[in-house]
Design a protein that fits this description.
Layout (H helix, E strand, L loop, with lengths): L1 H26 L9 E9 L8 H23 L4 H13 L20 E7 L5 E7 L5 H11 L4 E3 H10 L13 H16 L5 H12 L5 E6 L5 E7 L20 E3 L4 E7 L1 H6 L2 H12 L3 H16 L3 E7 L4 E5 L3 E8 L4 E6 L2
Parallel strand pairs: 3-4
Antiparallel strand pairs: 1-5, 1-11, 2-3, 2-6, 5-6, 7-8, 8-9, 9-10, 11-12
Helix pairs in contact: 2-3, 3-4, 6-7, 9-10
The protein binds aspartic acid.
Aspartic acid binds next to β8 and α8.
Length: 350
């Protein structure tokens, strides 16, 4: 009798598992797996057409295209998704248009403290740096931490020292100065002083929103070998203080990659993205609930994050090469390219 009961239980467990598997299968896109694909963002926020000049719009679009073409060529020639992510981000880090590398926003102390991270979906290896002040391209530091150190995350002076030891390009902290970002800090400070109803927690963010000075950069890619990778680089948020670290260098919040699911890079109000574990949550919804990338990204960006009170967006690629750009702000600088070389560059909601 006992044996029959045991067999019955086993049968029920088996059937349930199979149903979950079938549901997961059924939710997967029907199309063929792409050979490779790549998607980038240059930050999400209150990016409104009425506040843009045609010249500014053209400049952003041109830089996004320049950046993504670098990664596309690497992938086309059989390079790794990690290399594509790193080199694509380098282009945006070197442009003053974006809040990463040259063009990073200022802290309350009028310094620039940069955060970055990168993750390899094949091995689940990851590297991240927080609060560096002398590393020209923080994404290269994140990569070096992943490849050449026993650690995942380094911060502050130690991270700067490691970068130097690794032979990465070191710059004077003044390299990061841009008038536009400096003015943005002055405006944020003024707003903080005058808007008495602000509390300390939100002042630095609201002022930045009004100025629409976002521009964290990120990239997710799938290579010809089925390996996913993602990376994110940022100056953080204008007027940040006390060594504040955002989501960008937090693996699972700002960046996540797993060959079984997807690769994700986030941008937005970091505090909320950390609390919602945005990038990993999207992967987990796919892994454990069988959601498609589109469904998972929608769930986290349109429901979980705004319900907490945060905003922002993500770009992501799944293991089939499907690409998603999801955001709950007015706009997000973004571009994608598939294996046929078809390019999409967008700024606003469509
Ligand atoms: N997520 C970044 C941070 O909180 C900022 C951004 O993406 O706009 O540091």
């Amino acid at each position: 009798m006992k044996k029959v009961f045991l067999l019955f239980v086993l049968l029920i467990v088996f059937t349930t598992c199979k149903n979950v598997e079938e549901k997961a299968e059924e939710n997967q896109p029907k199309q063929e797996k792409a050979e490779f694909s790549i998607i980038i963002h240059g930050g999400a926020g209150t990016i409104l057409k009425k506040n843009m000049t045609p010249e500014k719009e053209a400049a952003y679009k041109a830089k996004l295209e320049e950046a993504i073409r670098v990664g596309f060529e690497i992938l086309k020639q059989g390079g790794s998704s990690l290399d594509a992510v790193e080199k694509t981000i380098n282009v945006m880090e070197d442009s003053p248009l974006f809040n990463a590398g040259k063009g990073a926003v200022f802290t309350n102390a009028e310094t620039n403290e940069l955060d970055a991270s990168i993750m390899d979906g094949e091995t689940l290896n990851a590297g991240a740096s927080a609060g560096t002040t002398t590393v020209r391209n923080p994404i290269n530091l994140a990569r070096a931490i992943m490849d050449n150190s026993p650690h995942v995350m380094l911060s502050g002076k130690g991270a700067d020292t490691f970068a130097e030891e690794q032979g990465l390009q070191i710059v004077d902290p003044n390299y990061f100065y841009t008038e536009r970002r400096f003015k943005s800090l002055q405006r944020a400070k003024k707003a903080e002083k005058t808007e008495l109803d602000h509390d300390d927690k939100t002042a630095f963010y609201d002022a930045d929103i009004k100025d629409s000075k976002f521009g964290t950069v990120g990239c997710a890619a799938l290579d010809k070998y089925g390996n996913l990778a993602a990376g994110t680089s940022t100056g953080g948020m204008t007027n940040k203080r006390w060594g504040r670290v955002g989501d960008a260098p937090i693996i699972g919040a700002g960046t996540y990659a797993n060959n079984n699911t997807c690769a994700v890079s986030s941008t937005g109000w970091g505090e909320y993205f950390i609390r919602a574990m945005v990038a990993h949550d999207i992967s987990a919804l796919m892994e454990y609930k069988g959601l498609t990338l589109k469904e998972a990204a929608h769930e986290v960006i349109q429901k979980k994050v705004p319900e907490l009170g945060g905003d922002g967006g993500i770009v992501a690629v799944d293991k089939y090469g499907n690409m998603v750009a999801e955001f709950n702000t007015a706009g997000m600088y973004r571009a994608s390219m598939n294996d046929k070389g078809e390019l999409v560059v967008k700024i606003y909601k469509e």
